[in-house]
Amino acid sequence: MTAKTYTKLAAAISNGWHSDFTPRRFLNNGHVMTLAGNFLPRHWSLPEPEELLVEVEEPVKGYEAYGPTSILCHCHWQPLDVRRERLTVVLVHGLEGSSDSQYVLGNSTRAWAAGCNVVRMNMRSCGGTDRFSPTIYHSGRSNDVARVVEEILSRQGLQAVAMIGYSMGGNLVLKYAGEYGVDAPSALKAVVGISPLMDLAVSSAALHERQNRFYEKHFLRSMIDRVRRKAELFPEMYLPYYASGKLRRLHSMRDFDEQVVARFGGFANADDYYYSVASSRCASQFSVPTLIVHSLDDPFIRMLPETRQVLIENPHVNFIETHHGGHCAFLAPSAGYDGYWAEKILLGFLLATVPNQVHGS
Predict the structure, then answer these.
(1) Can you give the residue ranges of the AB hydrolase-1 domain (predicted)?
(2) Model's pTM, two decimal places?
């Protein structure tokens, strides 16, 4: 971290929610850390969720028979007599994740135990919800986040909401906060991005580097399978493209973004997509307390120097940049807790930021 960053975190350190990150033994390599964070078995304890289906987009013109696009959220509400006053944490997963991703469930368990309401949001089509979404998901769908917030506020009369996003989900929640700026809903009290995909063009290029081809192939296979499912569910929209055989000629995520995301997401090309949806473009407009955690050894998420500088200079942002941590992992030695350092400090940040009466402590 720079001296400037340390200065900004002085109050956080004195309040006790921040601690420096030390990688778990043998995990000081970004790739090893990333894989360990993804595959190590975990345990969590949550009550059965209440399902909430939120309409986020009207039927596509010309394909009205397929109906609107909706997303599925899994909600864990505190008892009715305290629900409105408790902090509600909305969690958004990363690329090809879901509301059942390990880090989503880990954070949910922590927040629930601390007395918070928890809403686990699936992006469009994710978590087995392809049938609810004729349209595709991508890194710019911040309006979906806005719709979820609007829906839970109107249904539950909540007083305080915090957003947590990992990787691509980090870009979504940060873009949402930046687009609203000072006009954000009064109930929005804090935003957190862990390993957020704020600069898409350089991160896409990094994903195609030789050492990262393992990750890229994994994502690409999964995304191509999703287009196949779209073609089965919504043939008039997707079958002509799928049947053309062009998917077999996609060899990188940039190819996918150029040929699929741009085509079906309304962008001119991949560069237009990367530029248009990057939360780094509105980082100076973050106006609620914000925590961003990024690791310098993240295998494929890159942050431009100008983005880093804007975050450091924004008085509303607590920016933590570690030397180790991999992508969304941040596994520390187990010393009095389970060692999931990012989950621990982000909850500490939320509980220190939002008044005590809204999280039951």
Answers:
(1) 88-331
(2) 0.93
Q: Which of 261, 277, 293 is the last residue of a domain?
A: 277
Tell me the CATH number at 91: 3.40.50.1820
Pair (140, 31) in one structural domain:
yes
Q: Tell me the per-residue pLDDT of 22-37, one tens digit each, with 9 for 90 and over.
A: 999 999 999 999 999 9
Known catalytic residue at 298: yes
Look at the chain and report how many structural domains it folds into.
2
- Active-site residue, 167 included: yes
In a shared domain, residues 267 and 131: no
Of 101, 133, 167, 195, the catalytic one is 167
The boundaries of the domain holding residue 156 are 3-199+282-358
Q: Is the pLDDT of residue 4 over 70?
A: no
Residues 225 and 195 both lie in one domain:
no
Q: Classify residue 249 by burial, with Cβ atoms within 10 Å: 0-12, 13-18, 19+.
A: exposed
Contacts of 40 (CB under 8 A, 6+ apart): 331
Question: What's the pLDDT score for residue 14?
Answer: 41
Instruction: Please check whether residue 93 is in contact with residue 104, taking contact to mean a CB–CB distance below 8 angstroms.
Output: yes
Active-site residue, from 74, 298, 324, 359: 298
- What's the pLDDT tens digit per position in 245-291? 999 999 999 999 999 999 999 999 999 999 999 999 999 999 999 99
Answer with the one of 277, 297, 313 that is the final residue of a domain: 277
Phi, psi dihedral angles at 101 (to 5 degrees): -60, 150
Asked if the model's pLDDT at residue 311 lies above 60, the reply is yes
Q: What is the pLDDT of residue 297?
A: 97
pLDDT in tens, 100-110: 999 999 999 99
Which position among 18, 138, 327, 359 bears the catalytic label?
327
Q: Do 349 and 210 reside in the same domain of the chain?
A: no
Strands 317-322, 188-194: parallel, antiparallel or unpaired by DSSP? Answer: unpaired
269 and 312 together in one domain: no
- Classified as helix, coil or strand, 107 is helix
Instruction: Read off φ and ψ for residue 294, nearest 5 degrees.
Output: -140, 140
CA angle (21, 283, 135) in 5-degree steps: 100
Q: Are residues 13 and 147 in the same domain?
A: yes
Q: List helix spans (H) across the chain.
A: 3-8, 10-15, 30-39, 80-83, 102-113, 142-156, 168-180, 200-207, 213-233, 235-243, 253-256, 262-265, 270-277, 305-313, 341-353
